[in-house]
Design a protein that fits this description.
alpha+beta, Beta-Lactamase
Length: 315
């Protein structure tokens, strides 16, 4: 049976192993915010743990790394719960970069919820330097040339396999992103849809009461209002259906200015009240041949991405 001092020593040993491990450790909350980072990572980045905690892992990546991480690897954690051996560059406090290999795994509770995400980071400086030196040694000798040819043959085979896997993954990811976009839309659209149904039901109820009293003068106006609400609800439904399924492109002549202007309501509902939206249309803009639904999707996705990139407002 262990004594209290033995248990305390064990805890100290585990804490020392975590803080001074040869790799960086991060624990992140389900929303991506870092809740714990070890001293090894702090020393690599040249900043204290207090300046790391509270931010997101993506905040420490270069701009290409941010884009690639957000569009490829973060969705992998959401869909399959892990990813391995991702090569990225992290930005240190002085602005220089440290090359790393990153692994991530989501820890799931018994109820199926994400408790936290554990990110393991390996310093790849020596590996990158070795790869560069190996490439620079090309042609130095026949033996080196043969070794490089073998390396290239293996690399080409791996690249070919990776390209095929990437094509398949991008197809799945594209559909998943459309479903995620629907998740962002549902709150605002449900509110708008309810308002439109209220116009339809209210107009029909008033028309019914007027008919019962024999007051028929306002009937056409009430029916027009109800029909307008129903048509607007049908337009919202059509947009949702276009988002939620894969469908062939139907190019047509589109007035892009008018299309963007007509998206004012759906953009306002999606972005929320804290985001200020300004629409600047181009004068003399030519008409464009495009799939109207896909063009709307592109504009909406750009707006949602911009909102998500600035969760605390413009910086």
């Amino acid at each position: 049976m262990s004594s209290g001092s033995d248990i305390g020593q064990d805890v100290d040993d585990l804490l020392d192993l975590f803080e001074n491990a040869p790799c960086g450790y991060i624990s992140a909350a389900p929303d991506g915010r870092i809740i714990l980072a070890n001293k090894t990572l702090s020393s690599w980045l040249g900043m204290s743990g207090e300046k790391i905690v509270g931010r997101k892992f993506i905040d420490f990546l270069t701009m290409p790394g941010k884009i690639y991480f957000e569009t490829h690897f973060a969705p992998l954690v959401t869909m399959q719960g892990w990813f391995n051996e991702v090569a990225l560059d992290m930005v240190k406090a002085d602005g220089s970069r440290v090359p790393v290999l990153v692994n991530a795994v989501a820890r799931i509770s018994d109820e199926g919820d994400v408790r936290f995400i554990r990110i393991t980071i390996f310093n790849a400086t020596d590996r990158r330097r070795y790869e560069k030196e190996l490439l620079e040694a090309r042609g130095a000798s026949e033996r080196s040339a043969a070794a490089l040819r073998d390396l290239n043959a293996t690399l080409e085979e791996r690249v070919a396999v990776a390209v095929q896997e990437k094509i398949a993954a991008e197809s799945t990811l594209h559909q998943a992103q459309k479903i995620e976009a629907i998740g962002h839309l549902t709150g605002g659209i449900a509110h708008d849809f309810n308002n439109m149904l209220a116009v339809v039901i209210g107009g029909l109820n008033m028309a019914q009461r007027r008919i019962a009293r024999g007051a028929l003068d306002d009937i056409p106006r009430l029916l027009d209002a109800a029909l307008d609400g129903a048509n607007r609800a049908a337009t919202l439904t059509q947009r949702l259906l276009a988002f939620s399924r894969q469908q062939p492109l139907s190019p047509e002549t589109v007035d892009a200015n008018k299309l963007v202007a007509n998206m004012a309501e759906i953009l306002a509902s999606t972005l929320g009240e804290i985001v200020q939206k300004e629409t600047v249309l181009a004068s003399g803009l030519w008409r464009t041949k495009a799939d109207a639904n896909q063009l709307e999707n592109a504009v909406l996705n750009l707006a949602v991405n911009a909102r998500d990139a600035m969760p605390e407002g413009e910086s």
